[in-house]
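Example record

The entry below shows one chain as it appears in the dataset: sequence first, then structure tokens.
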Amino acid sequence: MFNVKEGDFPLNDKIIFWANIPIVWILISIFSVLSSANIMFGLWIPYFAVFNSLSHVIVSVRNHEYNPGLLVSLILGIPVGIYALIIFYS
């Protein structure tokens, strides 16, 4: 599905699917809707964005290679997530 090469890699098609579909798309959508009832549910989203983005950066630095999601993590995930948390807590 995602054309992941076979070999000794930390991710395979199953892990990629279960990390992206239920966690990213379904949980973020649910927390977005729930945030209209309680803002604390919405606060989970920038925390997740920063954590997920940092995982892309750490893996890239550790392996000395580019990984899918690194550029978006550096340009959007970390700055926007941190900005949202700063705005919320100020």
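Notes for this example: The chain has one domain: 13-89. The mean pLDDT is 86.
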